[in-house]
Amino acid sequence: MNVSESGMMSLTLPRVGIDPNCPSPVNEFIADEEAASICPLLTPSPPTSFDHPLSLINPSPGMAYEQEISPSSTDNMEIPTRSALNGNNMVGYSVLNQEILDQSNNEGSVPTLNATSSVHSVMESSSSSSSVLQEPTVCAQLLSSHHYHHLTKASNIDPFTCQESGGKPPLSGLQLAVTKSTSDFCFLSWNWPVIRKLSFWGVVSLLMACACVVVALIAQLAQSDSSNFDGIGDLRGLLSRVQYLDSLGVQAVRLNPIFPSKQYPESYDTPTSLTGINPHLGTEQDFTAFVEAMHKHNMSIVLDLPIRPYFKQLLTAAEKDKQKEAQNKIIIASKKIHLTRKNGSDQDNFTENLINSLIIPPLVDITRAQDKMEDTISNTLRYWLRRGVDGFYIKGLEYFTDDPDFASQIRNWKKIVNSFSAGLDDERILMCSVSVLDTVNESGDSNTLRAVLNNIDLIDIHLDLFGNGTESVKKQVDKVLQGILYTKPGYPWVHWNFGSVDTQRLSTHLISPNGSLGAILFHMMLPGTPSIFYGDEIGLKDIQDSQGERKDISHLHQLAPMHWIRSDRAFGFTPTEFHPWLPFSDSWSYIEAGKQSALKDIARLRDVTPPVYMNGVYKDGENLPNCEIRTLHPDIIVMERMYPRRNSYVVVSNFGSETQVRDLSSLYYGGEVVADLRGRVGQYVTFQTLLLYPGESIVVKLDK
């Protein structure tokens, strides 16, 4: 081993397959033998004037092959098994021109290179005994489509030949490892610290932007008039539909119980308070906004007050108090028994004391409970009247008619309501079921009967369309018209309903798509105040529970979510990603807006037409009914409304499932259509061959 003056190390390798008598060849491009001995290149180094085929890439001069040895190494030592890689001094491997390789492959011979006639030394192991280092410029030359795995020394040629398919002895299997330069990988020269910072802050900014969007949406929902999307209808959702109610000609909205309950909405009718709002329905501010919007559209608000279940809870609480008091008395009596026996008291005195101790008062203090009812209802009426409520439906009142103070209580409630009325145009009202009137009438208590007739404004009556066809409807209406309510003009007004929160829906029984809408037209022509249960105008049905999964709330199946928007999958009741508290039911929701406008036509007619809006005809101090009903077929019903010196109006309805053609010319000749379901308003029709489709109703103003 020799060290040159320049500090470079040379290593003499043993000769393999070369005549020992043959002197070592000298590179023609090296000036002297010493230079040849210290720079044993694998390929000859070209002179400066040499025009190399890869001259576009200039290799760095002075490339050397370095080898790590131990201090005890000698010049004739074997090649070490491991070499040290110096990243700063790398040896490059020049490749042969592609044209020379092509010539060798095509002609079968190897062209002569003007280099040297022999090699100073060669390697005999296929595994490299030293690691090689490579300059970046030369590394680029080695990145070609060919992988130069072998170098071969043939016996008849001097230069090395590159073989792609394997070499020939004696140098077959010599592996050359080539490392690519960092300049060939552009991403190695990127400014990664800056890139990492930019990526981090970009992600943080994106997350902050998403958070801001979510906060903005939540704030917008909090400030909007939309529902809270919990799947339960509420005041804010109803507020957003005031325009829809107004378009149908609605003049009052009756709200089912809106009060707090232990489990809402399943136990909506068993409130724990009558002066609060259930959180599921909204806040007091929501209620105030709803009242203001309703009054702005000239619509009134009536609240249902379910007093029976509420006071039943109070009575139950009173019973529990009495039971607890009785238990305490028993405990005290037991202690006295123990003391009597211990002291040896007289047996007769002991028995008397024990009997006195075990006197248990009544479990229910009726008087105290009735006083509680009087105070509670009076305070409830005042509370809601101050909030802008226009009336109250006192539900379950028929269960308190046996109270000796019942008549005085009703008079007091009416006095409270009247104190908030501002005249006929701003009158507050009280409602109750017809069951109250029937119960009092049967009892024979004339004082209580007069109290009901003189202080209740509306009597709610349910018409059952499915008892016995149209004949059943006629009997129910005739009973009311011939009853006590029509004996004097000042008696309560009749409030009709074909369906409510307590009954099944019309469309559940009616086969025809338009059946519910046709029934409503007939309903609105009755004398008194008609009531439409929400959704009946679009044919909403009860929910289906064929598997019995909601059998425990079967009394609520008619409270299906409303279909506000026909085209929306959730019908506008709630966003599609939220589920309503009850599943959506079927409905005849394809009813065109033109057909629903018939309701507004009838509502307008009721406002301006005496034969329709008058409850009866006052004559000779008696209130006579201005309504007559006829049935011509189990499915066909005809009702006429009349008033002196006015045109009469007739409504004809087909409640069956088949088309009917009827001749009514014996009753009426003809007239102008004022409301129907086929767009014939304003047309003149005759009754000789009147065609009615299933579920259809037509309202005609008769000729005088």
Automatic annotation (TrEMBL):
Classification via InterPro entries: GH, GH13_cat_dom
Glycosyl hydrolase family 13 catalytic domain span: 227-563
UniProtKB keywords: Membrane, Transmembrane, Transmembrane helix
Segments passing through the bilayer: 198-219
A Pfam family of this chain: Alpha-amylase
Keyword Oxidoreductase: no
Name of the protein described by the UniProt record: Glycosyl hydrolase family 13 catalytic domain-containing protein
Organism: Timema podura
Source species taxonomy: Eukaryota, Metazoa, Ecdysozoa, Arthropoda, Hexapoda
